[in-house]
Amino acid sequence: xxxxxxxxxxxxxxxxxxxxxxxxxxxxxxxxxxxxxxxxxxxxxxxxxxxxxxxxxxxxxxxxxxxxxxxxxxxxxxxxxxxxxxxxxxxxxxxxxxxxxxxxxxxxxxxxxxxxxxxxxxxxxxxxxxxxxxxxxxxxxxxxxxxxxxxxxxxxxxxxxxxxxxxxxxxxxxxxxxxxxxxxxxxxxxxxxxxxxxxxxxxxxxxxxxxxxxxxxxxxxxxxxxxxxxxxxxxxxxxxxxxxxxxxxxxxxxxxxxxxxxxxxxxxxxxxxxxxxxxxxxxxxxxxxxxxxxxxxxxxxxxxxxxxxxxxxxxxxxxxxxxxxxxxxxxxxxxxxxxxxxxxxxxxxxxxxx
Length: 354
Fold this sequence. Notes:
- Helices cover 28% and strands 23% of the residues.
- It is of the alpha/beta class and 354 residues long.
- The chain has a 7-stranded mixed beta sheet with strand order 2-3-1-4-5-11-6, sandwiched between helices. It has a 4-stranded antiparallel beta sheet with strand order 7-8-9-10, with no helix packed on it.
């Protein structure tokens, strides 16, 4: 099984669906998806240290072929815990030859994280998958990685996403650079706080006056994008009237804005230095929807007759989909199962398909 394992073989207790996030990590080969997943796992304490794609120690690239090629060729699941919420990261391969594995990950997910290189930009497959997610209303966010490479340009990467993906892609944070060009931290636009890594440790502080002047317009555009999707219809009028909206209110409305599928936050992340990793984990928990907000796919009986719509209820009838089946050299056949309704406890067998 290609995921971080628990020390015990006992099946975990079912989680309240509101405390679960299922997120597909999407992007072209070489964009940095697996390295990003490693950084998230390490920061959350799911693994003791980051693995390396190049030397074959990445958690989600444990297959011999992946270690030899240096990139993912199949779907992998990497669970972590953050702020009391379980996040299942579905690391997908980026090559066009493995798009079936990628689409399997999207079927199992409630939201998608599109990883875009600040150097390499976008490819046609990524743009196509974005359109497929848009067609079904799947919430999406953008992570701009590889900011620590030569010629990396966060602003250009975001502008490219706005041109090729959606004009609803708006920066949630902006990277800060040291004199030598290295990524030294970021400034969060909603609460106007700086995560400063220039000392080698993460330090939160207020922004300098020069930063406030630079981010004013972008912050205004972001706030308008968030509150335009708010359920509080008076919020936009109050903001345009000059009222200072509490950042806590904006963060609370962020999930609504993302869930509606028209607003797509973009975050700068430098996984190797840790810049942006905490902010991304917070977004996964605070900004992405739970399974309760993902409608169950259409279900039919063995005779083909339709079943009335089913909600995500742990006490309801079991509705699950086998997303992928693989063979593990130690445990045999292993299936990835997405449960949409009901509770499936091991060791139980799923009923055979008709």
